[in-house]
Amino acid sequence: MTRRRAFLAGLAALPLASALRAGDGDTREVIRIATEGAFPPYNSLDAQGRPQGFEIDLATEICAHLGIQAEWVLNDWPSMIPDLLAGHYDAIMAGMAITPLRARRIAFSREYFPRPGTASGMFVGTHSFQSTEGALIAVQENTIHHDHLVALGMKAQNHPTATAALKAMIDGQADMVFGSPDFLENRALRSRRMMVILGREEIAAGGPAIAFRPGDTALRDRFNAALTTLESDGILDRLNDKWFKPSRDI
């Protein structure tokens, strides 16, 4: 069963029912944006179960620029694209990388941070198991990282979220974990040498971007224009520094 919960942006301190009532008198256009809430620093949940992270802050800036309001929808990763196409929400902001296969089904915005044609994956493990040969590798299902492991003929142990894959490795259920460096690197460094970075792999994919239904090109173009303005105003760099710089506690 797909998990789906809605939150109006800017009302995170209120219970959900109160938040929805408080938004009733707002005449601004509401755009429903799906996120996973399990892929920090792009998106996660705070102590009250409300969305937070780079993409939540970015959407807040985009919506302020466009004069619209975001309604966040928490959705499970495997059904993200099918539920977008079914009309359950208007866009996806969930650290979703651009791939040729996805681009045949949905429309993407420009990348958050343009990169030269490749994404990357990172292997993280412990000092007791540092070779990928014969290793059981935890990975989030339905991702570019899962597909890359399969293409390499490695033993993939599937998990519903990147957080669950990392936990499986920590709990000894897998020998190592493979996933986004944005997600894994800081966690490995902050583990105070309990986890080690074993290596990186280049993956033929674009960077994360916002996903839309194929026919919603006008909405995509509005978001693209806002992203370009936020980049030129230095706001993208500020959000990048806030969410992606290594922790000073390392």
TrEMBL record:
Subcellular location: Cell envelope
GO molecular function: ligand-gated monoatomic ion channel activity
Residues spanning the signal sequence: 1-22
Residue ranges constituting the Ionotropic glutamate receptor C-terminal domain according to the UniProt record: 30-246
Keywords from the named record: Signal
Keyword presence, Signal: yes
InterPro entries to which the protein is assigned, alphabetical: Iontro_rcpt_C (IPR001320), SBP_3_CS (IPR018313), Solute-binding_3/MltF_N (IPR001638)
PANTHER family per UniProt: AMINO-ACID-BINDING PROTEIN YXEM-RELATED (PTHR35936:SF19), MEMBRANE-BOUND LYTIC MUREIN TRANSGLYCOSYLASE F (PTHR35936)
Similarity section: Belongs to the bacterial solute-binding protein 3 family.
Protein name: Amino acid ABC transporter substrate-binding protein
Annotated organism of origin: Aquicoccus porphyridii
Source species taxonomy: Bacteria, Pseudomonadati, Pseudomonadota, Alphaproteobacteria, Rhodobacterales
